[in-house]
Design a protein that fits this description.
By secondary structure, the protein is mainly alpha-helical. It is built from 21 helices and 2 strands.
Length: 446
């Protein structure tokens, strides 16, 4: 009965109603901010890449780059490999176009939710800076009850989407590729994750600022090599993408065919699932950043979605389309793996995908632990942080050795439900966002 009810609810949470809500919010924010994601993209790139070694001014628990690295650690996950493949495997080449649309709008949504979260952040009893939709709803909008709902959804959903699913993906990849038992994988992952998350956000930030660039370069290096090898086919593939986005894709080979609506739904949904714009997750870690103004850190949100969706997801999509594996009738991680195996000689293709799954999943495990912890701290105080981290380690092992699909499915629904209180917080705070934006750009800043 629980499974049936969850399946019904999930159809709305990750179906057209939520897609329309998220995309509509992205369009509205794009209009009221004057297309911030385009106007400030150059500024965002220079803010992140040009100030890596500079010490930031202001309050905070981690550096701005450590904050965006931790946020990217959470968003760059299995969705970048399996999610994109699912979108194309079901929606056809046109799904990639709609994934770009979700990324373009998501850049502005994330910019907005981070800026607002920074304005309302506060320190907990240990001195750690905390923020997110729950604090916006409590401190800015006078709706602490809705903040409690968001915090509860975050604390519980994290165990599925950010923990067990990731652990199971790593265990499955190592078992399939090297015959390593899931139990051993689970134990090793628990030990390695413990060494990171038990040190709190400071240690998480210290690890992710090196881990995220390494795994992104490794995966992009393999993917762009394939793109370069098939450079002559890029015009043909782009033609398929734009044609499929507006006319659908006919059945071919093992591909069953796709309508415009299918391409749109799966492209947008998988894009939003990957970059998490509008779900309210990333603002929780960005709120811990040391910065002198909310808009400055919001620039990192534009950069975050740009890397996740425009760079990494696009690379996965192009590899699948350029190798023509999208028409084989498979989807998910199996499709991505097949595309890389076809595209790269020898065992390099499977090595890139296996490494990507392991690194992306582990980084998500680490990043989402802080999101779930933030929800628990809001509900029960700073004393809940360490018990939550220890419980997180237990669920890593459970995820590695067993599928527990009902837990995953319920958590997936709760993860999507996070968007509702978060979007309420963002939409009701638009006047604040515009005031902060005007204030920041009123005078030259370095």
């Amino acid at each position: 009965m629980i499974a049936d009810f969850n399946s019904w609810l999930n159809g709305y949470v990750w179906g057209w109603p939520m897609i329309i809500l998220l995309i509509g919010t992205g369009i509205l924010l794009t209009l009221v901010t004057g297309v911030a994601q385009v106007r400030y993209l150059g500024r965002a790139l220079s803010e992140v890449l040009g100030k890596l070694t500079q010490k930031s001014k202001g309050d905070g628990s981690v550096s701005p780059f450590q904050a965006v690295s931790t946020a990217l650690a959470s968003t760059v996950g299995v969705g970048n490999i399996a999610g994109v493949a699912t979108a194309i495997g079901i929606g056809g080449p046109g799904a990639l176009f709609w994934l770009w649309v979700s990324g373009a709008l998501g850049m502005c949504t994330k910019y907005a939710e981070i800026a607002i979260a920074l304005h309302y952040r506060e320190k907990d009893s240990t001195g750690t800076m905390r923020g997110g939709a729950m604090y916006i709803l409590k401190n800015g909008l006078g709706m602490p009850w809705l903040g409690t709902v968001f915090a509860l959804l975050t604390a519980v959903a994290a165990f599925g989407i950010g923990n067990m699913v990731q652990a199971n993906s790593v265990a499955g990849a190592l078992d399939a590729s090297f015959g390593i038992s899931p139990s051993l994988t689970g134990i090793v992952m628990v030990v390695i994750t413990a060494a990171v998350i038990l040190g709190g956000i400071k240690r998480i930030g210290q690890v992710t600022e090196y881990l995220v660039p390494f795994m992104a370069i490794l995966y992009l290096g393999g993917g762009l090599t394939i793109v370069g090898m098939h450079a002559g086919d890029i015009p043909r593939v782009l033609g398929q993408v734009f044609d499929g986005a507006f006319t659908g894709t006919a059945a071919t080979g093992g591909f069953a065919g796709s309508t415009i609506m299918m391409a749109m739904r799966y492209g947008i949904a998988r894009g939003l699932f990957s970059n998490e714009a509008g779900l309210g997750s990333a603002p929780m870690v960005h709120a811990a950043a040391t910065t002198d103004h909310p808009i400055r850190q919001a620039m990192y949100g534009i950069f975050e979605v740009f890397v996740d969706t425009i760079l990494i997801c696009t690379t996965t999509g192009l590899v699948i389309l350029l190798t023509d594996t999208w028409s084989l009738g498979i989807n998910g991680a199996a499709l991505s793996a097949k595309a890389f195996e076809v595209g790269l000689p020898g065992t390099w293709g499977s090595l890139v995908v296996t490494s990507g799954v392991m690194l992306f999943s582990f980084s998500t495990l680490v990043g989402w632990s802080y999101y779930g912890e933030t929800g628990a701290v809001y509900l029960f105080g700073a004393k809940a942080a360490m018990p939550y981290r220890l419980l997180w380690l237990v669920f890593i092992y459970l995820g590695a050795v067993g599928s527990l699909h009902l837990v995953w499915d319920v958590a997936d629904t709760l993860n999507g439900l996070m968007a509702i209180p978060n979007l309420i917080a963002v939409l009701l705070s638009i006047p604040l966002l515009l005031r902060l934006q005007k204030e920041f750009f009123a005078k030259p800043r370095t």
